[in-house]
Amino acid sequence: MIGKLTGRLEYRSSDHVLIDVRGVGYIVYCSDRTMATLPGTGEAVALYTDMVVREDLMQLYGFPSLMEKEWHRLLTSVQGVGAKVSLAILGALGPEGVSRAIALGDWATVKAAKGVGPKTAQRIVLDLKDKAPGVMAMGGTIADAMDGPGLDVVEPAEPVETGKTPRKAPPKAPSGAAAASAGALSALGNLGYGPSDAAAAVAEAAATYPDANEAELIRAALRLLAPKG
What we know:
Belongs to the RuvA family. This protein is α/β, with parallel strands linked by helices. Helix content is about 45%, strand content about 20%.
């Protein structure tokens, strides 16, 4: 299983890229949102990957974060949701948007993705609502993930130019919104709130205050969780 690729972007199409890793080209399919964030041709690129192997098919799908990769894995576990539909949902909503919609039971937002009907959207929310807290709590960097089990990392050879010291790219941290949500979710869990209630409150708070930091999200979520009346 190939869990991550680091190499040079050699070619890009509308829905996939070709990444050269030590002279071997890997075709990686990505969502529209991910494609828009990738560097230009000839530049260095790193993606987490999920590989689908069937009798007549072998394809790689690429993701810029572990959160997005995990949502892809969970989405494709739902009956009737294949890789194409999963990428459409992630492309339309992004991983944070998927977390919010599923934590809040908002199947109408999921349905807005291309190729997703109402029954499929309802099934996604129903099947995955209990999984949302765990995905929202993910906040590790690429460096952290490489130290853990289960990832086969394919990386390019070191540069051979004489007299030059290779520069290592800094690890990619999660986005501010993802990190704030993960921290708020952890704090609410430490305060004794259940995972589903905490996830729904953090998701609603993040939707209302998209620029909020961790402390602001915690305060907003606590207001939502406070007894009414």
